[in-house]
DNA sequence: TTGACATGTGACAGGTTGTCGCCTAATATA
DNA sequence: TATATTAGGCGACAACCTGTCACATGTCAA
């Protein structure tokens, strides 16, 4: 987490640093990103940087978490709008994210995530784990739409959904947009209806 | 991939290098692992190392892929033994892997994977993607047990299963073994029966 | 004015990586 | 046997990186 000193900075300087960081993380994969280049581009002395962030990872996490917070808010709205339908909300979240990534301040996030697939969890999963996110969202989920058989099924399902969404978003950067979306729809379908063939005694019309 | 020069090496030297590498990757997370320490521990000069592998990543991938090949073979056997039941095979694969990790040459793999969760995909997914693995395994899967509605459903399902297995294996290193297994069973259950509540007109006994 | 404290600053020590020219040993050719 | 050719062993080196630390500077309260 950034130190309080960082938040006391003049906003202009703060944003300059973050912008330089985003640019660097877009340019090369995480491991190759260099604090050196970031501070140079931002015109911020070495010592100061380490006053704000403990290291590169701290900075990267901050970028991800800022955006993750936005996503969580949006997810809450989408759940409400869809009457608590978890699957519908996730699909709409995909559309929302794709839209936001196309332009504006968060345009770079998509590219960063694509260049750093291993970091996917950092975007969607709270430092405290997926549990934490789910707990804040739980009230908005309509459980009657789901067939949950144990206490933890919701958590497991949520995890599956998050992983799937993340994966789809990343592939959406390289394959055709609709193709990625179609894949998401298919996987959501599998998760809803199950992949095991149904007993013949229970066939749908 | 290691150069042919690497394979021409006397087996003793080759194994010394790989052992040193495993030890280093167990010691610290991937980013912190140092080629320096590996070659020092193995008593191999710098120039030689770069003759065998292009860099640290190349070496790491090699370790993972050696093991991945074993897993794929095992998976093929398990599919045959379970009459092509994909779900049963995955569950047994979990048990198998846990057993192997407890001792022997691959004891370290579990720890490495745990210290480097982001690398999970490298273990299970072929460089060519999950598709490649599935294609080699496809014939052994009994499709009649599955309810696949589009061409790509099997591939999507396979991806879900692999991701889930990897996640469970990693958590199994930290939480109680049976707990991790129980979680895998639950998730497999969700994937089989689906998470959407069934229409009342089609209730099981 | 003076002190106390937060913050800015860049030189520095200690580490890393990949390369490159040189040397050795083994094998093929005349 | 003498010589050419080639694969491989080797370690010094340049170029880079990171995190720290002693010192400079600014700011606010007494």
UniProtKB/TrEMBL annotation, chains A, B:
The keyword Secreted does not apply. Coiled coil: none annotated. InterPro entries: Homeodomain-like_sf (IPR009057), HTH_TetR (IPR001647). Residues 11-71 form the HTH tetR-type domain. Keywords: DNA-binding, Transcription, Transcription regulation. Residues 34-53 bind DNA. Signal peptide: none annotated. SUPFAM superfamilies: Homeodomain-like (SSF46689). PANTHER family: HTH-TYPE TRANSCRIPTIONAL REGULATOR YJDC, TRANSCRIPTIONAL REGULATORY PROTEIN. This is TetR/AcrR family transcriptional regulator.
